Amino acid sequence: MQSCLNPKVRVALVEDDPEARTRLQASIAADPSLELVNSYTTGAEALAGLESHAPDVLLVDLGLPDIPGLDIVRRVAGRYPQCDILVVTIFGDHSHVLAALQAGARGYLLKGGATRDIALGIHDLRNGGSPLSPAIARQVLDRLQSAGTPAPGAEAESDPDESKLSAREAEILNAISRGFTYAETARMFGIGPATVHTYLKRVYRKLQVHSKTEAVFEASRRGLL
Amino acid sequence: MLRRAALCIPGFVLLAQLSLALCPSGAAHAQDLLFTIEEAQFLLSDRRRPPPDTAPWTPLRLPDDWNVSRPGVAGTGWYRMTFQLPPGPPVPFTVLFKRINAHHLVAFVNDRVISGGGPRGAQVFRPWQQPERYFVAPALLRTGENVVHVRIEADASLHQGLHRLIIGAAPQVMQRFRNLLNLQLFPLPMLSGAALLAGVLAFAFWVRERGDSVLLWFAVTALAWAAVTWPWFTVSGSDAAGNLLGAIAFLLRFSPIPPMLVLCLRLAGRPMIKSEACLWLFTAAGLAAAYSHGASLSGALITWWTGVYLALLVLLLLLIASQRDRRNAALWLLIAAATAAILLNAHDYGRWIGWIDFDNPTLAHFHVPLVLFALGANLIGRHFDAIGRIERARIELESRVAAKAREIEATYARVREAERVEALASERQRIMTDMHDGVGGSLVGLLGAVQAGRTDAREIERRLNEVLQELRLAVDALEPVNGDLAAVLGGVRHRMWPAIEDSGVELQWRVGELPRLGYLTPSVILQIQRIVLEALSNALRHAGARSVSVDTSIDAGANALEIRIADDGSGFDGDSVTMGRGLRSMRARATGIGGKLEVHSSPAKGTAISLRLPLTGEALPFAA
Lengths: 225, 624
What we know:
The complex is a heterodimer of chains A (225) and B (624).
Chain A: H1 2-5, E1 9-14, H2 18-30, E2 34-40, H3 43-52, E3 57-61, H4 69-79, E4 84-89, H5 94-103, E5 107-110, H6 115-126, H7 134-146, H8 167-177, H9 182-189, H10 193-221
Parallel strand pairs in A: 1-2, 1-3, 3-4, 4-5
Helix pairs in contact in A: 2-6, 7-8, 8-10, 9-10
Chain B: E1 2-3, H1 18-21, E2 34-37, E3 39-44, E4 58-61, E5 64-65, H2 66-69, E6 74-85, E7 93-97, E8 104-109, E9 112-113, E10 132-136, E11 144-155, E12 161-162, E13 165-169, H3 170-185, H4 187-208, H5 213-228, H6 230-233, H7 243-254, H8 257-268, H9 273-293, H10 295-323, H11 329-352, H12 367-451, H13 457-478, H14 485-503, E14 506-510, H15 522-541, E15 547-555, E16 560-567, H16 574-579, H17 581-592, E17 596-602, E18 606-614
Parallel strand pairs in B: 14-15
Antiparallel strand pairs in B: 1-2, 2-13, 3-4, 3-6, 5-12, 6-11, 7-10, 7-13, 8-9, 8-11, 15-16, 16-18, 17-18
């Protein structure tokens, strides 16, 4: 809710590659509504630094040298729920993005995108989530719909409805998976674009819950729990 | 002369006659008097009244089998017996004949007829062993010696004669009489009735199950057993002699034995044709012997022949049991029953030839229940064996089917694995080719341009972006979309979003719900992506269009799905369209994935590119 009080969005980034870091820094600096509060070069540094300076948005490179990017996402998402996390990837392929979303990220940015795309992505995120690619929307849809029947043994740990898609959420994901933009999707269902974002936020949350449920189920199946 | 005693019975019939042995003894009271008369005098005479005491009586001991004591004689004879009655109040007496074994019999006590039916007597020859009793009025008896005369018309060849007489107070004697009925008479209808029922039942089963000859032989045996008793219930005329009658008696008494043997052989194992043939020959020989000897010898023949049969049977069964499963309890039961039959038969034979007390009842027929029981046990055993075999066969079959299924599954898994490996190899090959022709080629070209000094930064950026775009498309093609073509089309739009934004062309995106396609492998996806990308790029860059539309439609009748990319731009001339290099490559790509590309272009209406794909189909091999 800081963004309501302070119009400047406080952004931090974790990126080990100097050039990429420079580009990201430049992109943020170019947008007056964004304020770069910190840039870290390693995961450990970031985790330590975030203790004192929690930003509104954290950009995380998934390929850090010391700590796997997904671990940082998971830990930050757990510790600072009000901080939105964006992962930075070259291709935006599902294996990276889906894992990041499940770990608690709210979206992804493409490395090598135009300067303005970085800022746009951050603003999209603040409005509810960055655009999902149709293939990833399809993946999320398939994954959460098959979760309609929750895994046995998972009920005790989490409410099965927590990771179940509502009919409207499924419709919206379906439209996105067919390549419709958020605006087109909003028009299609007679709702505002902000509502689409709200729905997607819920979907992200469910994806995160679902992944935890899956992990619990998997752990109990393997006898770890 | 007079003796108070239990019957003298050989040990092996003790069980059957146990009740008879429990007779009262040593009582002084007249009510308890019971005499068994063993000593008598005999006179061969056809007088109607008892001969005087002065006649030439010869002493003998009862029982008296004429065939033993006076072979060849047929005529009328008198027996004279006495018993001492102690003083006491007069009580009604009864005379008991254990068996009427004569053509005619008349009994006198103290010269008065006590048997019914007038002076000739009512009794006629009965082939079976019915006991008879006559009442003696107390007035006929006197304290001290009393005399009993018995007149019989008998035939030695029929083993006729007189058994021991039992005289005593009516209640005791009647008890004896009832015991004898129970032992000698009543078992017959019960046994033959049981045999008849079993035979009918077995026959009914055989009618249902013709294949099982054992059932038929069981039925024949049991029915023959039922028939055996028929002559025992009939009262033949006084003249029982005659070859035919003897042979018939032989046949009837004998009829169950050959089928029983056949049955045992079949039960014991596979049909033994030679053994069975010998059996029938032996039977025919027995019949011939009985016919030639007539009734005179039939009794002995029956018992002797039966004994041989049964001995053969036991031998055969022992032989079979020694070769087969020794734990087959039912077979051993059958051997035991056959052995018991031999012993019972031996008893009867011994009785015929005088080695065993002639008073003993014939016992051979008691082997009917034994043998029927053993045979029944064998049949039931066979039944359960058959059920067990079927069950084992079923389990065996199931396990074989399961093994086969596992085998097939393993083969299938191997085939799938091989296909997967091959698909992987071809996929790798495709990616290599793609990298070489696409990204590799672009980078080499760019490198050349940079080396040649044509280092326009914006041009380099543009071309690098193109390379990156190409790489991203290749990555997109690898994304699992579960056969969702709409997601593939959406992916192309997603990747082209900046270009579409920049061009200012209005995009009308009308991608509907599409059925999942089974053949959407990464290579097919890549071809579709490139076709759509090329079509869209053409529309954005060259056509000068204001709007571009992407529509999908399904033509279920033609089993086809259509992607239509249309613009309202300047269009092409028909001839140049077909010559266009880009269009030619699009068409080749469409053909390669089993689709069809159509291009309609006219200057007035713009360009419409339609890609038709099959709705169903397996994963297609990549076609370059």
